[in-house]
Write a structure and sequence with these properties.
This protein has about 325 residues and is α/β, with parallel strands linked by helices. The chain has ten helices and ten strands.
Length: about 325
């Protein structure tokens, strides 16, 4: 079913002064590395949700989005799909996920490496896409743990990816953070990548050209399904709206490569389940803009039931 989207000029204008030197949150992250590094190394992963729930009230600075509290946002979007009595627990677990993901990165630093236990489903969709000879674009949604677990699951199954990354990817957007803090996360993730293509603060044109070359060579390119763009598309989603950057479908259209959604969730048995869905074909015969709109609408429709099933694991609550 086609869903009409609205182009919104929501992107922030570039700051010609460049990133700040350092921020207060950088010191908080540095303190967090010192405090939580030993816990990440020795504390069994099954205890992490409890630890995260304990500290979740202190992660309140993640909660505000447009002045709306997380609990109100959950109620508005989920409505009767989830019992109202469950919403406080969902909100606490959603906040706690930031710490659990942080612990997962820190665990990747320990001398005896512990690889997350991952299961990849839908690999046949990716293999069929690759067999067509034009590479493949993976559109990876922002569930907690997606950043590392999706790369591990793909690599373990023999699919080494080329990932598109923003220069602020990691823990900080400052010059200090990008130099000292972000390499912690990037270094752990890079073990499971074929390559990482960095955008610049001036735009994504050069990075997208590099990704097109990779696709022409038959590579797998992964792009996170965020909203960082000068003009993201706005679509109906559950009881509200969602904004999506359209770089992934536009890239897939330009390269004539299949576009496959990917979702990562953490199961009760301690496994990270990474699911590759069939390619999005809606609007493929149209122009680039038409395909980007149609693909974004189908992506949002496919995403909705997964968010309802695992609402505490979706990071999107903190940006919609």
């Amino acid at each position: 079913m086609a869903v009409k989207g609205i182009r919104k000029g929501m992107g922030k204008p570039a700051d010609r002064r460049g990133p700040k030197l350092v921020s207060f949150s950088d010191f908080g992250t540095l303190l967090g590395v010192i405090v939580f590094l030993p816990l990440a190394w020795v504390l069994p992963r099954r205890w992490w949700p409890s630890l995260g729930t304990v500290v979740s009230p202190f992660i309140g600075f993640f909660e505000s989005s447009g002045g709306e509290a997380l609990s109100a946002r959950l109620a508005r979007y989920l409505g009767e799909r989830v019992p109202a009595s469950d919403l406080p627990h969902i909100a606490a677990r959603a906040r706690a996920g930031f710490l659990e993901e942080f612990l997962g990165i820190l665990r990747g630093l320990r001398p005896w490496r512990a690889t997350p236990r991952c299961a990849l489903t839908g690999a046949e969709h990716l293999q069929a896409a690759l067999d067509a000879g034009k590479g493949a674009v993976l559109w990876i949604d922002e569930f907690h743990f997606y950043s590392l677990a999706s790369k591990v699951a793909l690599a373990q199954s023999g699919f080494m990816t080329v990932h598109l990354s923003h220069p602020t990817h990691g823990f900080s957007k400052t010059r200090f953070g990008m130099t000292v803090l972000n390499p912690i996360k990037i270094g752990v993730e890079n073990r499971w990548l074929k390559d990482r293509v960095m955008m610049s603060f001036d735009g994504a044109t050069g990075a997208l050209r590099s990704l097109q070359r990779h696709l022409r060579a038959g590579d797998i390119v992964s792009v996170t399904a965020g909203a960082d763009a000068a003009a993201p598309i706005e679509l109906p989603f559950l009881g509200g709206r969602i904004r999506l950057a359209t770089g992934a479908p536009e890239l897939a259209h330009l390269a004539k490569a299949p576009l496959l959604p990917v979702h990562t969730v953490y199961l009760d048995d301690g496994t990270f389940e990474v699911t590759i869905e069939p390619p999005i074909e809606a609007g493929r015969d149209g122009g680039r803009a038409a395909y980007a709109e149609a693909a974004s609408g189908e992506y949002a429709e496919r995403l909705a039931p997964i968010v309802v099933k695992h609402p505490h694991q979706w990071r999107g609550w903190f940006r919609i």
